[in-house]
Structure formats: structure tokens, C-alpha cells
């Protein structure tokens, strides 16, 4: 009836029917009368097709990739700039164009997984890191590599902090690429001769920083606005130049056998008189060098900035330990204190760190299962640099294992000596929270062969923002599990919460009770147990999130 009414006495504009194909009313009525409902299987297939299309459209295929570090293909990288920062000091910058070297670095970083730590500055909070800048056709990508918790991390400024799967050999290979290229870049530069120093001295107040551009030197600067450059000079001397880039503040010639600041400013003093009053290294044999070294209470006092690594080894002997990710040698002195010499790419000392506090013996335990007790030491020699270290030496005194901790969020950790069934274990507990998202992990392990062998481990993840309900029974079970281990443990070292705690002492205060619950006391009644606290908090957080 509707079709008939629509076609009765209607005006057609421009000879074209406007609706329902108005030109054939009889045919349309027949089509309506002959209409049949589609069979069931056609409807089912159609509905499934719609559902599948909706799921595909709602799914974000890139969501998974957001958890991984995005890296360009090696073939699209035009060059790679590398720059080492040690103790806040710029050691030097070099450019890498070799495709294999670029591929090596990208391969090592491939698959790096995003952590909960955020990047909020141009540079990491760490004092020591390697900057890798990937230069592409239309953009540059900056990455900062460093080690922490015996793990390897890469930070992309303002994007995130990622942990990449690597081993020490791979990490050393990355630094070798940097060091080899930096050495090659400076190999054409020459150390200063005494005649060079005399020529520079004649310039007096007209001496400028550009006069040193053709000589090999190490930059000791801690920022880009002020330069402190040390140049090796033949005969056992060094020249330390300080400048803001516009004028020379000082150009001091010093003997490597005397303390820093004991030399002369070549612009205003007689260079030859100074040289005559100081023996040259050419006249010093190794035995004489040792005699000079032993002439003071400690040979290290004869080592200053600008001293060559060769001379350090001659005076101090082989190092007791080397620095991971840095170029430096460490020595344990007779009184138990430590001294570390840091070297630049030119093998000259650019920094010396001394700890007057000896390593503290925390205890002895058989953790490597060799039937003999290892020694557990606390090393605070680098505390001023932002970290402390737990060292374990085997029964012969040889280094077996170590782990660093610091007070920055990414460096929080707690280590305990745990006894189970008459056997000794190490227990690491990491209750981590970042912006309300939590990952709590404990690991019970031994050190057979100096390698961590995990005996038992467990992890629980949850959020306190109310995005999801808390699984109270699961959280209670996890707390009981870790507390049972802590109840049989002695604290060795902790930086949890950004504060250091040193053992040996009770582990009771580290018992897990989810202390963030204390921030909302109004939710709980007197006598509520932990499970009730978790349930009430979860209901409150979820309702507020909505």
C-alpha cells in the first residue's frame, strides 16, 4: 500500500523518479510479495563476519611493540655518534660509519623491553654511561647505555628506560667500537715535546686554546661550558690547560711525580728552570720508579691526573679489580681502603677516587657449595659517586661475585643471607612500584662457579590505582612466602626507598605487609587483618578510578 501511495500522482523532476525506483510499480510489488527470509546459515555467517571485522578494527597491532625499544634498520642509519660520560666527565666523542659496527650495536639492543622507570631528563641520572646517537636521513635518535643491578639498560630521553638482554662480552664489544674509533680519531695527533712547550710559553698572554688543537690531550671537563685539558709531555711531564674557550685561565706544566698544582704556568715562568729541577722519566728505570713510589707512605700519592696507565701499573702493579663499563683500575690498599684510577681514551688518568673506609666484612658463608666459606664484604668506596657494592670473595680471596646498589629508583635492591635446611643462600627482594603499578619479585640463589643459580623465585604484579581489583588471596600468599624466607635471613645491604641500610642486622623490618596501605587509614577498622585491608583498599581504589 505504501508503494502504491508513493507513486500516485507525484510530480517527477527533470524526468527522473526520486524514490523507490518509481518507474515500475507493478514489478516492485511482485518483488515484495516474493521476498523470503534468508536461511539460518547465511545469517550466522554474516553475524560472524561482522564480529570478526569489529575485533580486527578494535585491535591495535602496534600495542605490543610499544613495550620494546624501537630501532631503525641498520641500513637506514647514516652514521652513529658515540660519546662516553664517566663520572659526569665527557671523555670524548667519535663518529662510526662502518655498517658492521652499527649492526653490532643495534643487534645488541634489539628486543630491549620497557621497564617501569620513566625518563624525564636529557641525560640519565647515572654518572657513567655511553651515548649512542643514530643519525638517520630525517631525524636523530639518542640512546644512553649503562649497567645497573648487574643488568644492561638503554635509556631513550623522555621516552623510557629499557632493559636489554646482553652479556658482558657483548657490552665490552660495544665499548670497544667506541674506544677503537676514538683512538683512531686521535692517532694523528702528537703528544707535546719539550720544544712544543717552550714555543707555547713564548706566546705569553697571547696563548689561546686553539694553539693546542694539533696535540693529543684528554678532556677532564664536567660540562661543555668550561674546558680542562691534560696533555702528555715527553720526559715525564704533563700540561694542564684551563679555559672557558675564550681565554686561557692557566697553562700549568707539572711533573707526573709530584702532586697536582705543584708546577708552573708556562706563560709567566721559566720552563727550562722548571725542567732542570725535575728528573725526566727517561732517566728513571722501573726499579727507580718503584723507589720513587715507595718514597712516600703510599705509592698512589705519586700518581696524579695526566699520569699514563703504564706508569700507574709500574707503580701499583696489576689491579685488584677493574670497572665494568668504564676504563679504570682499582686497588685495595694495605689498610683495607680502596683507590680507583680512571683513564681516558689516551690512557691518561683523568680522575682518582679514594675511599678511606676499608671494605667491611659482613660475614662468611658457603654460597658456592664448595665446602668452604666465602667472605662477604660491603664496599662503600664509591658511595660519593652514587653507589655501594656487595662483594663476595671465595676462600682463596679471589673475587667471586658482586652487585651494586644505589639510591636512585632504578638502583633500589635488598640483599640478604638466607639459611634454609642448614644451607646458605643469597636472597634478593625487589618490591618495585612505579606510578602505582607494582612488580614484587624475590629470588633465592647460590653461586656455584661464581654464577647465580636460582633455587626459587616468585613474582606478583598488581596496580594500586584502581584499574583492576586487587587479588587479595594471591597477595597474602605471596607475602607469607617471602616473609618465611626473610624470617630465616640476615640483612646484608639495602637501598630500598632511596635509603641505605647495611648489615649484618635483622631482616624483620623488610617483612612484606604492603606498607602503601598505611596511606589510607580511614578505610580500616581496628582489628582488621591484612586481607581485610587489601579488600577495602581495592574497593575504594576501583570506585574512585571509575
Fraction in beta strands: 25-35%
Number of strands: 26
Largest sheet: 7 strands, antiparallel
Radius of gyration: 35 Å
Mean pLDDT: 77
Strand order across the biggest sheet?
Answer: 2-1-4-5-6-7-3
The geometry reads as globular
Pick out the low-confidence regions: 1-7, 9-22, 61-65, 221-225, 281-298
Head-to-tail CA distance between termini: 52 Å
Name the helicity range.
10-25%
Decide which structural class fits the backbone.
alpha+beta
How many separate helices? 11
Please provide a written account of the structure:
Helix 4 packs antiparallel against helix 5 (168-186). The strands form 5 sheets. The protein has a 7-stranded antiparallel β-sheet with strand order 2-1-4-5-6-7-3, covered by helices on one side. A 6-stranded antiparallel β-sheet has the order 24-23-22-21-25-26, with helices on one face. The longest helix is centred in the N-terminal third of the chain and has 19 residues, at 40-58. The radius of gyration is 35 Å and the shape is globular. A hairpin with a 6-residue loop joins strand 25 and strand 26. The model is unreliable at 1-7, 9-22, 61-65, 221-225 and 281-298 (pLDDT under 50). It has helices spanning 2-6, 25-33, 40-58, 99-109, 168-186, 194-201, 271-276, 286-294, 309-316, 472-486, 530-545, and strands at residues 79-86, 89-96, 113-114, 129-135, 140-148, 151-156, 160-164, 217-219, 227-233, 237-243, 248-255, 264-265, 321-322, 328-332, 338-343, 349-355, 360-365, 374-379, 387-393, 399-406, 414-420, 423-434, 437-446, 453-463, 489-494, 501-506. The protein is of the alpha+beta class and 546 residues long.
Amino acid at each position: 500500500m505504501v508503494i502504491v501511495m508513493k507513486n500516485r500522482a507525484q510530480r517527477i523532476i527533470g524526468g527522473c523518479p526520486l524514490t523507490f525506483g518509481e518507474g515500475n510499480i507493478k514489478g516492485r510489488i511482485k518483488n515484495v510479495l516474493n521476498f523470503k527470509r534468508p536461511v539460518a546459515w547465511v545469517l550466522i555467517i554474516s553475524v560472524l563476519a561482522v564480529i570478526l571485522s569489529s575485533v580486527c578494527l578494535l585491535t591495535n597491532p602496534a600495542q605490543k611493540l610499544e613495550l620494546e625499544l624501537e630501532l631503525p634498520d641498520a641500513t637506514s642509519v647514516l652514521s652513529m655518534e658515540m660519546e662516553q660520560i664517566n663520572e659526569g666527565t665527557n671523555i670524548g666523542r667519535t663518529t662510526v660509519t662502518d655498517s658492521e659496527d652499527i649492526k653490532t650495536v643495534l643487534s645488541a639492543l634489539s628486543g630491549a623491553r620497557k621497564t617501569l622507570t620513566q625518563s624525564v631528563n636529557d641525560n640519565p641520572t647515572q654518572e657513567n654511561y655511553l651515548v649512542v646517537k643514530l643519525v638517520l636521513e630525517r631525524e636523530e635518535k639518542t640512546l644512553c647505555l649503562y649497567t645497573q643491578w648487574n643488568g644492561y639498560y638503554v635509556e631513550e630521553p623522555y621516552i623510557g628506560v629499557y632493559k636489554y638482554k646482553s652479556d658482558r662480552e657483548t657490552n665490552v664489544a660495544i665499548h670497544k667500537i667506541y674506544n677503537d674509533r676514538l683512538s683512531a680519531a686521535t692517532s694523528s695527533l702528537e703528544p707535546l715535546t719539550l720544544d712544543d712547550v717552550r714555543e707555547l710559553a713564548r706566546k705569553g698572554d697571547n696563548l689561546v686554546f686553539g694553539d693546542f688543537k694539533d696535540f693529543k690531550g684528554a678532556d677532564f671537563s664536567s660540562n661543555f661550558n668550561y674546558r680542562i685539558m691534560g696533555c702528555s709531555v715527553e720526559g715525564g711531564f704533563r700540561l694542564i690547560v684551563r679555559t672557558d674557550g675564550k681565554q686561557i685561565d692557566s697553562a700549568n706544566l707539572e711533573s707526573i711525580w709530584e702532586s697536582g698544582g705543584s708546577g708552573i704556568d708556562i706563560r709567566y715562568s721559566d720552563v727550562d728552570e722548571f725542567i732542570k729541577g725535575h728528573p725526566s722519566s727517561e732517566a728513571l728505570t722501573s726499579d727507580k720508579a718503584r723507589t720513587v713510589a715507595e718514597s712516600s707512605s703510599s705509592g698512589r700519592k705519586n700518581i696524579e691526573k695526566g699520569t699514563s696507565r703504564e706508569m700507574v701499573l709500574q707503580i701499583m702493579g696489576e689491579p685488584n679489580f677493574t670497572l665494568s663499563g668504564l676504563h679504570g683500575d682499582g686497588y685495595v690498599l694495605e689498610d683495607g681502603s680502596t683507590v680507583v684510577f680512571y683513564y681516558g681514551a689516551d690512557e691518561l688518568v683523568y680522575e682518582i677516587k679514594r675511599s678511606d673506609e676499608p671494605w667491611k666484612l659482613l660475614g662468611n658463608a658457603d654460597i658456592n657449595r664448595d665446602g668452604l666459606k666465602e667472605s662477604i664484604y660491603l664496599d662503600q668506596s664509591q658511595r660519593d659517586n652514587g653507589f655501594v657494592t656487595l662483594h663476595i670473595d671465595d676462600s682463596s680471596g679471589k673475587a667471586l661475585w658482586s652487585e651494586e646498589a644505589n639510591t636512585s629508583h632504578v638502583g633500589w635492591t635488598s640483599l640478604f643471607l638466607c639459611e634454609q635446611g642448614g644451607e646458605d643462600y643469597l636472597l634478593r627482594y625487589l618490591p618495585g612500584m612505579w606510578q602505582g603499578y607494582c612488580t614484587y619479585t624475590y629470588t633465592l640463589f647460590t653461586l656455584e662457579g661464581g654464577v647465580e643459580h636460582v633455587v626459587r623465585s616468585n613474582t606478583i604484579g598488581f596496580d594500586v590505582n584502581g584499574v583492576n581489583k586487587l587479588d587479595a588471596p594471591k597477595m597474602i600468599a605471596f607475602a607469607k612466602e617471602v616473609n618465611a624466607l626473610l624470617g630465616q635471613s640476615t640483612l646484608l645491604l639495602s637501598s630500598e626507598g632511596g635509603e641505605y641500610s647495611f648489615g649484618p642486622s635483622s631482616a624483620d623490618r623488610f617483612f612484606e605487609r604492603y606498607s602503601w596501605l598505611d596511606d589510607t587509614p580511614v578505610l580500616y577498622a581496628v582489628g582488621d587483618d591484612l586481607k581485610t585491608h587489601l579488600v577495602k583498599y581495592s574497593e575504594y581504589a576501583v570506585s574512585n578510578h571509575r
